[in-house]
Specification:
- The protein is mostly helical and 204 residues long.
- The protein contains nine helices and no strands.
- The chain is globular and about 60 Å long.
Length: 204
């Protein structure tokens, strides 16, 4: 085997080991967030859970905010997947209501997205975690665009998809706090109203 091939193998092994350790840290962070709350997540607590010295985490994340963004990006992937699957199962009418209900269900069970949004800087930065988060957020918006039948080809259409996402996120806050039930509203009823307001009727 040539030197170049050996060097390439070593680089690949290092990258795989780095990814595996990063994944283990994220899993530890998710356990800590579930136990103590995402807002109270600390690098020291995550390091203890993962079996690392706190300083070792800085080789994988720049700080708590970076770690929260990585967790939230994973949750955005799960959110997009759940909404897409629900929309496909609806197979025609009610696709947006099904996607919205699935989105509410996922968001009601996680606080990492809210915690990560609170940790983000006011101005978009160049960090890898933030880019990943933004990319996953765009994937969620695309799922909503498809489920609503809104191709978002115009600025107006894009605004509607963003308003739809904001409505679902806001309803999730109400649901997490128990206020939907206290006000006498059911998530499926509200998801149906979102369908009525935002879904574009199929052509013909």
């Amino acid at each position: 085997m040539t030197r170049a091939a050996l060097a390439e193998q070593r680089t690949l092994r290092r990258a795989q080991a780095h990814a595996a350790t990063r994944g283990a840290i994220l899993e530890a962070a998710r356990r800590v967030a579930a136990r103590d709350g995402a807002r109270d997540l600390s690098l020291r607590g995550v390091a203890a859970e993962a079996g690392f010295a706190p300083a070792a985490l800085y080789g994988y994340f720049t700080g708590k905010d970076d770690l929260l963004l990585a967790l939230a990006a994973e949750d955005l992937s799960a959110l997009a997947r759940a909404m897409r699957e629900a929309s496909v199962r609806a197979d025609g009418g009610g696709r947006l209501a099904s996607a919205a209900a699935a989105g509410l269900s996922v968001l009601r069970e996680t606080e990492t997205l809210a915690a990560a949004l609170g940790a983000m800087p006011a101005q978009a930065g160049p960090g890898e975690a933030e880019r990943l988060f933004n990319g996953r957020m765009i994937a969620v918006l695309k799922v909503l665009s498809e489920a609503s039948g809104n191709r978002a080809a115009t600025r107006e259409g894009q605004c509607d998809v963003l308003l739809l996402a904001a409505a679902i996120a806001g309803l999730a806050v109400f649901a997490r706090s128990g206020r939907l039930g206290a006000l006498g509203f059911d998530p499926s009823e509200l998801a149906a109203r979102l369908e009525a307001h935002f879904a574009t009727p199929p052509p013909g």
